[in-house]
Design goal:
The structure is a homodimer. By secondary structure, chain A is an alpha+beta fold. The first copy, chain A, is globular and about 60 Å long. Chains A and B meet through helix 1, strand 1, helix 4, helix 5 and strand 4 of A and helix 1, strand 1, helix 4, helix 5 and strand 4 of B. Strand 5 of chain A pairs parallel with strand 1 of chain B, so a sheet runs across the interface.
């Protein structure tokens, strides 16, 4: 079922009330509605079915280009081609993105956050024709939901909060924090079907492996350089 | 006026319903309530008065340490000491942070986002005793507001949204997008008191300069290496 364009734009306008550094609004959104557009994006997100299946795909872009362009036409020397500026733009963009998700769900829409956006940023940059000083950092698929799934588990908030300084947990405290997660039937099932002995191994050996993370780190740093946010290539790590 | 600790913890628990990569919850929060703690943080935020003046200061931490520690005690080889993993943790943390701000304001609290957290991360790391695989990415001051300020301006949402591919604006389009901002009396005043000819120059020459951005980029990359998220120092840029 279609999602009205005016509704999406209205939600994005309200979302732009999020905090933004110096009110520079260092973000853009590319709205993908055509079948061709979704087909270009789908493989970059490992063909997860929501990309082609959702009414709208929104790619959230950390964007220092618009502001830099304004400086360029205003006789001002913009110095935003560096890593701190990328970090500031990514921050602005994520606050805006989460605001949008909250507003969308409040309006009855369903959203799915695709973390795969930074796995192959060069592909997304090419597909969406993203110029220098822009970088894709998040993708949200949006549609009218036809299910109402149960909430997933979360750690007790005491595992997250530290009073005054960081409390480095003991081994026993860590085991206690994750005990509930490990006890869930669906997680025991994951361990079994993957032939592992612990749930953590499902993460380290199957879902988020060192080899993949290191290769994708290199790709992301190269893409940051390509887009003008890193002046020099980072030294090649010796894995 | 004090802000009840149970209220803050309850809001943080609800905020943790934000999307999180693989349900890894890659974030922590350090809650600063003591005068000594606020005094340690204040200079790191350029002595902006809200740090000492707010009831509570929350520093949001991109955190792969807790998850890595769980892997360590679970016979699993955690491969999260790399840049992609920092990016994932920063993303998780920002979604959680914005959710908290929305919930806090809904509860009648006032919040202020301090972007200065990444300006001197090494100082924050030392003040809060942040261990390897953690990194401070945002600071929120929280209190009961005694004022209700007017909303600041935002660009028209059409400047933010791109259909199907990125639309690289023309000079005229850029001028038109920023015309309203430039027309505001407070912004004309900024131009005048700073002795500039355009509003953009107030940003590039006074507020967010190339020199500061480049120095802080180096400091942030060094801090990322120190905390274990970059394996090798980035090549030194030749400014």
């Amino acid at each position: 079922m279609d999602v009205d364009k005016a509704l999406i734009h209205s939600l994005l306008a309200t979302a732009s009330r999020a905090a933004t550094m110096g009110n520079m609004q260092l973000y853009s959104v590319v709205e993908t509605r055509t079948a061709e557009g979704k087909e270009r994006l789908a493989p970059l997100h490992f063909n997860q079915p929501m990309v082609k299946g959702a009414a709208v795909v929104l790619t959230f872009i950390a964007d220092f280009r618009r502001f830099t362009h304004w400086c360029d036409v205003s006789d001002a020397d913009a110095g935003y081609d560096n890593f701190l500026s990328f970090t500031n733009a990514m921050t602005d963009c994520m606050l805006f993105c989460q605001n949008f998700c909250t507003l969308a769900e409040e309006a009855g829409l369903g959203t799915c956050f695709l973390g795969t956006t930074v796995y192959n940023p060069k592909g997304v940059i090419e597909a969406l024709q993203l110029p220098r000083l822009t970088f894709p950092v998040a993708t949200i698929t949006v549609g009218w939901p036809d299910e109402d799934p149960a909430q997933t588990d979360r750690l007790d908030i005491s595992a997250i909060i530290h009073e005054e300084t960081y409390h480095d947990a003991s081994d026993e405290e860590i085991k206690s924090m994750f005990a509930y997660k490990e006890s869930l039937p669906e997680n025991k099932h994951f361990v079994e079907v993957n032939g592992k002995t612990t749930l953590a191994q499902v993460f380290t050996d199957c879902r988020y492996t060192r080899k993949d993370n290191e290769a994708m780190s290199d790709g992301m740093l190269e893409a940051l350089q390509q887009q003008g946010f890193l002046q020099c290539p980072p030294s090649t790590p010796t894995h």
